[in-house]
Design goal:
The protein has 19 helices and twelve strands. By secondary structure, the protein is an alpha+beta fold. A hairpin with a 2-residue loop joins β10 and β11.
Length: 446
């Protein structure tokens, strides 16, 4: 089958795997220069993947999503998020779960979350000391974790909240470098030999998290303690046969939301603060736009601000949290981009290569929010949240959170970068984050 795949990288598969784990961006840059819009890599122990970056090819894939197994392509994530996760299922079951999960993340529900996001941000920012450095990504992780605990899990106080907060943080930090991330890609490292091994620690913490989530589900059920949080809404949801989600489905989906919404949002916010404070003209325009709303603005008005929205979009373009979209495995022979792919071929659209195309985004290395004011990009030209039938379910909540956190901090604090130097992307688990986390300092209150 290898001979049928286009533009195969010729280096040994073990060497390709090391390159992909250590530096997925540099890896893609190198081979896109050699092969342009499409090339095939072979990762030792994981199989072959076709990387595509032409918008037309991505449009063809999104429009034919039913012809791919996508859940099956996400098997690498199963040890972290469980086999019932929306990310790991296909077909009718995927459509059912997605329909059940959709309501809490859209429409009027977002308005009820908006004020909470602002309050959480104010509370965490108030702990910053003037002229004392802090790591922006760590601060934003605190914000995004509180948003998930309060808005999604419905936890804001009490013993369970006190237990789960540090537990989630330590569990997620177990894959905070390329080396530590390698256990997600190398099955032979996934051996549970007790708490003294990294994998054993990871599974032990995960098991405890599941226990705490199960206790929360049972308490909500017995006390009929349904609030406006996402978990309560998920528990109340019923499919067309009147069936609710099982406890195992609920727990796996909660962990999926944690993985999809915690690291990713914190990372995007850290990059946004970095670029806003490297570009004084961007900061000035943002502050003028925020000031124009006056004292009595509500969060949903803030979320509609055009320049703030453009800054968020440009951050998402320049710093995709994932290097590629979820793998899509062909069910039968299919034609994409003029190539005929046999069954069981794994295709992966590259977010990074698409977002750095000169023909779509002139001077792509430059942070330029104006490009989003002057042009409307199609759903296959700008894909920070994926696309097709697998577009990120929480994208509207994520965008709202990014905008409101930025607006709340910039309206209340004057910040500066501790070091105004280029910062590189580094792998953290399946995601990419700023190396060092972006060190900043509050110099005064506004």
């Amino acid at each position: 089958m290898l001979s049928q795949l286009p533009n195969c990288i010729t280096s040994p598969s073990w060497w390709q795997l090391i390159g992909w784990i250590a530096d997925p961006i540099g890896f893609q840059q190198k081979y896109s220069q050699e092969y342009e819009d499409i090339f095939s890599m072979r990762l030792s122990g994981l199989g072959s993947y076709v990387i595509l970056s032409h918008p037309q090819a991505i449009q063809e894939i999104f429009s034919q999503d039913s012809k791919f197994d996508i859940g099956r392509g996400n098997k690498l994530a199963e040890p972290l998020i469980g086999r019932n996760s929306l990310m790991l299922i296909d077909g009718a079951r995927h459509r059912r779960e997605r329909k059940l999960l959709m309501p809490p993340f859209h429409g009027e529900k977002l308005q009820t979350y908006a004020q909470q996001i602002c309050l959480i941000t104010e509370q965490i920012a108030s702990q910053w000391q003037i002229n004392q450095p802090f790591v922006a990504r760590s601060a934003m992780q605190k914000v995004s974790l509180e948003v998930i605990l309060q808005i999604v899990f419905g936890l804001s106080e009490g013993e369970r909240y006190q237990l789960i907060l540090p537990l989630l943080t330590s569990w997620l930090d177990m894959t905070d470098s390329p080396l530590r991330s390698s256990m997600l890609f190398l099955p032979f490292l996934q051996q549970d030999w007790g708490k003294w091994t990294p994998w054993g620690q990871m599974k032990s913490r995960q098991s405890y998290i599941y226990e705490l989530l199960q206790a929360e589900i049972e308490e909500k059920r017995t006390k009929n303690n349904h609030q406006g949080d996402v978990l309560s809404l998920m528990m109340a949801a019923r499919d067309e046969n009147g069936q609710a989600m099982t406890d195992d489905e609920l727990k796996d989906e909660l962990l999926t939301i944690l993985f999809a919404g915690h690291e990713t949002t914190a990372t995007t916010l850290a990059w946004a603060f970095y670029q806003i404070h490297r570009n004084s003209d961007v900061l000035l325009k943002l502050q003028q736009e925020l000031d124009s709303l006056g004292e009595n603005s509500n969060p949903m008005q803030i979320a509609q601000l055009p320049y703030l929205s453009a800054v968020c979009q440009e951050t998402l373009r320049m710093y995709p949290v994932l290097p590629v979209l979820f793998p899509r495995i062909t069910k039968s022979s299919i034609n994409i981009a003029g190539y005929q792919f046999p069954p069981n071929t794994t295709l992966m659209p590259s977010i990074y290569l698409l977002h750095y195309r000169e023909d779509l985004y002139p001077n792509p290395q430059q942070f330029n929010p104006e490009r989003f004011l002057g042009r409307q990009y199609s759903p296959w030209e700008f894909i920070p949240f994926g696309g097709g039938s697998r577009r990120c379910l929480g994208y509207a909540l994520a965008q709202l959170e990014i905008k409101l956190v930025l607006a709340t901090v910039l309206s209340n604090y004057q910040l500066t970068l501790v070091e105004n130097k280029p910062i590189k992307l580094q792998r953290r688990g399946f995601t990419l984050a700023p190396n060092g986390g972006v060190r900043m300092m509050a110099i005064k209150k506004r």
